[in-house]
Design a protein that fits this description.
It is built from five helices and five strands. The mean pLDDT is 90. The chain has 127 residues and is an alpha/beta fold. Helix content is 46%, strand content 19%. It starts with a strand and ends in a 6-residue tail after the last helix. The protein has helices spanning 11-23, 34-44, 60-68, 86-95, 107-121; strands at 3-7, 27-31, 48-52, 77-81, 99-102. This is Response regulatory domain-containing protein. Residues 3-118 form the Response regulatory domain. The modification 4-aspartylphosphate is found at residue 52. It comes from Planosporangium flavigriseum.
């Protein structure tokens, strides 16, 4: 199916999302911080990114700006955050996030969003 990059500094969230997405048939790559995410994104060029906002080092905003600065078709990005306030959401939208999802979230919510985003990007026969 699709290649998805999961970026979160919390191992339990990375594992949960990896398990759910792999069970749905996706190829998943995970990164634990922003710098690793930028490297993984450039190497993989995934079909979708699930990106935590608050991480040590390079935060989700920095990673998102890097992703949006890449040539080629824009890759959908779902932002995850425990800081679900209007200012954070506004900044994420302004930087180019496709969705902004507050923690805690259900894994099914993320799966539903990814399926919808991929349906828009990949012809139905491939999804």
């Amino acid at each position: 199916m699709a290649q998805i990059l999961i970026v979160d500094d919390e191992p339990a969230i990375r594992q949960l999302l990896t398990d759910v997405l792999e069970l749905d048939g996706h190829e998943v790559r995970a990164a634990a911080d922003g710098l690793a995410a930028v490297s993984a994104f450039e190497a993989l060029r995934p079909d979708c990114v699930v990106l935590d906002l608050m991480m040590p080092g390079l935060d989700g905003y920095g990673v998102l700006r890097n992703i949006r600065g890449q040539d080629g078709d824009p890759v959908p990005v779902i932002m995850l955050t425990a800081a679900a306030d209007a200012e954070s959401a506004s900044r994420a939208w302004a930087d180019g996030a496709d969705y902004y999802l507050a923690k805690p979230f259900g894994a099914d919510e993320v799966l539903y969003l990814i399926r919808g985003l991929l349906r828009e990007r990949i012809p139905t026969a491939e999804v």
